[in-house]
Q: What sequence folds into this?
């Protein structure tokens, strides 16, 4: 097996351009599971974890948060990132053990494209843009275009995820991420949900994970509940609105039965999570108003 430890983005892109079968490796928390189970046998590997251009979080002047693909889950738990992307930090906190959080990366979670990926519902709710680079140049895809199916993405063989772009949280915004699984710690999500309440444009955004072949949005629920929030006081105009909001979110799910759960449970659970996240968001924002 040929192994290239890239020290620059150019090194990595040259390796990918030279051999379309080259496997990209960063944290390896997903790839090595498949290798150990005999599901993947790469003949060439390019390691990108030591490329400085792929690490870090930066805030642009227009309020866009740029997160390098090799940024680890542990990096996302820095106080600065927690303030600018609270739901993403909340999702990162639920990933595996400290060892996994120190190795696993945002780009790896995206590249795997698993419906259970913890960061993906948050990125869906934030309408993230995925930046891809190759020796041919750069292209940008919305998350909904990038993930095309269960563990399938639109990335080409010579491309590398370089960064992810999301809007930074603004004063008055509230974000939350919740998931349920078969145990309390280090769990793969049976159902997960991100709820983003944005006071500036008076919108609610909902991203769902593990309840469909790709990360889903609950557009009907978003529009319905946004009209029932007093955005100045950040309270619901109808006290029982969270219940119907949860039902609308559940109806947007497209779950399946598998070895970890039934479709019926997933649908019910994601509705409960959404209602709970909405209540938590409004409680936090109302207290800060």
A:
């Amino acid at each position: 097996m040929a192994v290239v430890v890239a020290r620059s983005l150019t090194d990595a892109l040259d390796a990918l351009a030279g051999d379309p079968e080259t496997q990209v490796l960063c944290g390896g928390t997903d790839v090595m599971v498949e290798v150990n189970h005999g599901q993947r046998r790469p003949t060439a590997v390019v390691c990108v974890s030591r490329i400085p251009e792929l690490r870090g979080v930066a805030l642009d002047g227009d309020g866009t948060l740029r997160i390098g693909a090799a940024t680890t889950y542990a990096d996302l738990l820095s106080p600065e990132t927690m303030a600018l992307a609270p739901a993403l930090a909340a999702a990162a906190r639920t990933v595996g053990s400290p060892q996994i959080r120190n190795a696993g990366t945002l780009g790896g979670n995206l590249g795997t494209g698993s419906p259970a990926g913890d960061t993906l519902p948050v990125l869906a709710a934030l309408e993230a843009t995925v930046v891809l680079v190759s020796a041919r140049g750069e292209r940008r895809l919305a998350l909904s275009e990038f993930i095309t199916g269960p563990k399938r993405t639109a990335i080409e063989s010579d491309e590398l995820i370089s960064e992810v772009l999301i809007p930074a949280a603004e004063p008055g915004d509230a974000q939350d991420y919740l998931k349920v699984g078969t145990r309390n710690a280090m769990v793969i999500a049976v159902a997960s949900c991100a709820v983003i309440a944005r006071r500036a444009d008076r919108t609610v955004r909902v991203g769902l994970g593990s309840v469909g072949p790709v990360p889903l949005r609950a557009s009907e629920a978003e529009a319905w509940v946004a009209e029932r929030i007093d955005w100045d006081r950040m309270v619901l105009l109808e006290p029982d609105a969270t219940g119907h909001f949860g039902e609308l979110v559940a109806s947007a799910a497209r779950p399946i039965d598998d070895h970890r759960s039934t479709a019926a449970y997933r649908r019910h659970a994601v509705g409960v999570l959404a209602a709970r996240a909405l209540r938590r968001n409004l409680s936090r924002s109302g207290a800060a108003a």
In short: The two ends are 58 Å apart (CA to CA). The first strand starts at residue 2 and ends at 5. The mean pLDDT is 93. The chain has two domains: 2-167, 174-288.
